[in-house]
Design goal:
With about 725 residues, this protein is α/β, with parallel strands linked by helices. Helices cover about 40% and strands about 20% of the residues.
Length: about 725
């Protein structure tokens, strides 16, 4: 079959009773009388079989059915055989055979279907219905002409003008819209000159009024142009057809024309620039978007959301249903269909493209059923932190940079709903009596929420996302450039010789990620126990036991601390103990364990330098209530800790090991002595904003090197050469 380049025309009006279905049917038949290969499609989703009945057909198969047939979607000959044949020579197919099939409409498949039909038929005539909805606009996008139908009465004319305004706002070019004036010579009707004065487009064709001929044809279920070929109505369709066959009437590549019109026709920001994402740099921070979403966009979302509650009975949808994958998918699909139609009713000129509509549908669905504007951030694997300061301020951390987004919640109440939706399945609550909560999501992500009166600007929510993929040693060196090969070789040797290691750094510097990498050097035959506040560690070893602390319940009881778990851990015969983070009195227990045979342990600690690590550990011991002199604490720390690995986050978002330091012991003044083995020589920032520098050895040969040799490890001494 030779592919055609068919032309598609949509017959449309938002006012009922103007004769659009009648015009679509008769236009298709008139084109067939001109020996053209014509397909008539019914996209009036609210009128059932009206178009089919008007031409004497009963359709038991629909476009939705055809789109589900894989063979029909790919083979043009198979596709053509799916059409209903009419005695006039036209082919016909409705979008749905039953009104309840509207929920099964897939916009991408509709788009593909029309494109394939244009390869088979010279002309495609579509009854577009009378409601702006997602499906109709998809059809418009695939069309070359819109025939806007009006009758010569005031209401119809002003409805037509409103349609033109919406189409203009949707960036459809003016040349694609042609006005067809039906019943143009009706007694008492508005003169066509007056219609032309109100509507900013030419009258493309006029169809005379002839109630007798129309009634006779409709009652017989035959097209009027076939039943009464000599009538004034038939003459009007002959003229309409002749006009359509003229050169330059149909607009090609409508989607591209819309895009050009959108770019050329407005200097204002696009819809999603106002509402979503732009990029610029301000005060050394990358900022997404510069302009707040307009209040009318927020009002639009609120209006749709309110109607959605009633249409879908959202109040009776349980969290259990939303957590069930099958039920959740069905609920979301149903919601998206309804939202698409509600947007068409409410949005007017605000929504300017198919992409905009899809994104807005998703956002409203997320707000109604999910976590609102946070949904897309949770789905983005490159985002590590989400920070909500109030309904108007949402920040994210992406690729190491803090980014402000123009995403926002409809209200502070919506933030509360999102917080409740997160913590309810975890058996937690938040209210004025318990205004703070820490919890962990099923995927391991950590959340912290705080509400008024403690938070003065509204509810605050922080989510530290759990990385789904474990970073390998090779990625750490060659992809992220966070360390040199010599550094990693040395750390690996330290792990094999069971040195006690502290990974230190600031918030968000990558301590846990680095600890995951370091722990991969532990032999698989060792029993490893990990203790964490929120389970983030992901070890590769098979003999791995995970322990997680527990906060107190609502009554303030049942708390299990890191220290409690550590004490219990000592009774579980561990070969290695790894604490996700030391931040309290558990430090004392850990140091005692390290000094009494549980060597090879690891932990992380918040500190800005290796010297700060030792100071912080000493402070935490003193705050634990243990009455020990400072010199005794220093001695305990110096004998327990072997290696401190410092990691830092830089201005370009990269994370680098800035120092590997050995704890040598105590000097004559009983102060802890530290020796740097490797350092990162920071040399400034390049013109592209990237941090410049190189990893260097200091030339110091660590004391533990002798232990490497005693354990039979082959470590090239040259790695310590500066």
């Amino acid at each position: 079959m030779m592919a055609m380049n068919g032309k598609t025309a949509v017959v449309f009006s938002t006012k009922g009773g103007v004769g659009k279905t009648f015009i679509a049917a008769n236009l298709a038949v008139q084109l067939a009388l001109k020996k053209k290969k014509v397909l008539l499609l019914d996209f009036d989703l609210q009128s059932g079989q009206d178009l089919a009945r008007s031409i004497g057909l009963k359709a038991r198969r629909s476009i939705v059915d055809v789109c589900l047939d894989a063979e029909a979607t790919e083979d043009l000959q198979v596709l053509e055989r799916q059409m209903f044949k009419h005695s006039s020579g036209i082919d016909f197919l409705p979008c749905v055979s039953q009104i309840d099939e509207t929920t099964k409409i897939d916009q991408d498949k509709i788009r593909h279907f029309i494109k394939n039909c244009a390869k088979i038929y010279e002309f495609i005539i579509i009854d577009g219905g009378k409601v702006f909805n997602e499906t109709l606009i998809t059809v418009f996008d695939q069309s070359n002409l819109i025939l806007l139908v009006a009758t010569p009465d005031v209401l119809a004319v002003y409805q037509a003008r409103a349609c033109l305004n919406v189409l203009t706002a949707l960036h459809f070019p003016s040349q694609i819209v042609k006005l067809v004036l039906n019943r143009s010579q009706s007694r008492g009707g508005v003169a066509w000159q007056e219609v032309r004065a109100v509507l900013p487009c030419d009258i493309f064709a006029q169809i005379a009024s002839d109630g007798k001929a129309v009634g006779l044809a409709l009652n017989k279920g035959v097209p009027c142009v076939s039943e009464s070929p000599e009538s004034p109505i038939a003459e009007g369709f002959q003229q309409l057809t002749s006009n359509l066959l003229k050169e330059g009437i149909f607009v090609q590549d409508i989607e591209q024309v819309r895009l050009r019109t959108k770019i050329k026709g407005t200097e204002e920001e696009s819809f999603w620039e106002k509402f979503g994402i732009n990029q610029h740099v301000s005060e050394s921070r990358e900022v997404l978007s510069a302009t707040r979403a307009d209040d009318d966009i927020v009002k639009l979302k609120q209006a749709v959301h309110d109607k959605l509650i009633d249409r879908l009975n959202l109040r009776n949808i349980t969290m259990d249903a939303l957590r069930d994958p099958v039920q959740s998918r069905k609920i979301r699909e149903g919601a998206e269909k309804v939202i698409g139609d509600l947007l068409a009713e409410e949005a007017g000129a605000l929504i300017s493209s198919l992409e905009d509509r899809r994104r807005l549908v998703k956002e409203i669905t997320d707000e109604a059923l999910g976590l609102g504007p946070l949904e897309e951030f949770l789905a983005d694997s490159e985002i590590t932190d989400i920070m909500v300061n109030n309904k108007d301020e949402i920040y994210i951390e992406k690729k190491g940079k803090i980014i402000f987004t123009n995403k926002r919640f409809i209200s502070n109440g919506q933030i509360r709903s999102v917080i409740d939706r997160i913590i309810a399945p975890l058996g937690r609550r938040i209210d004025e009596s318990v205004p703070m909560v820490n919890a962990r999501l099923p995927d391991g992500s950590r959340i912290n929420a705080i509400i008024p009166p403690l938070s003065l600007k509204g509810p605050m929510l922080t989510i530290r996302k759990f990385a789904q993929e474990r970073i390998t040693v090779e990625e750490l060196i060659h992809v992220y450039h966070s360390a040199s090969q010599s550094m990693i070789d040395f750390i690996q040797a330290c792990v094999h010789t069971r040195k006690n290691i502290i990974v230190s750094g600031g918030t968000g510097s990558g301590k846990t990620t680095l600890l995951n990498v370091i722990s991969s050097f532990i032999a698989d035959d060792e029993r490893i126990l990990t203790i964490e506040d929120a389970a983030e560690l992901k070890l590769r070893q098979s003999h791995w036991g995970r322990l997680e602390s527990r906060p107190p319940n609502i009554e303030g009881r049942g708390e299990i601390t890191i220290r409690d778990l550590f004490i219990n851990c000592l009774r579980m015969r561990p070969d290695r103990i790894i604490i996700g983070e030391c931040r309290g009195p558990e430090v004392l227990d850990m140091l005692q364990a390290m000094n009494t045979g549980h060597d090879g342990s690891m932990t992380t600690l918040h500190a800005n330098s290796t010297r700060d690590v030792l100071v912080r550990m000493s402070s935490m011991i003193l705050l634990s209530g243990v009455d020990l002199p400072l010199k005794a604490i220093y001695e305990m720390v110096s004998t327990a800790i072997d290696i401190v690995v410092q990691i830092s986050r830089f201005s370009d978002g990269t994370r680098k090991i800035t120092g590997i330091t050995e704890v040598v012991g105590l000097d004559d003044q009983r102060d802890i002595m530290l020796k740097d083995i490797f350092v990162f020589d920071h040399q400034g920032v390049g013109p592209d904003g990237k941090v410049l520098g190189e990893y260097k050895a200091t030339g110091y040969i660590p004391i533990c090197y002798d232990d490497f040799l005693k354990k039979g490890l082959t470590v090239d001494k040259a790695i310590f050469n500066p």
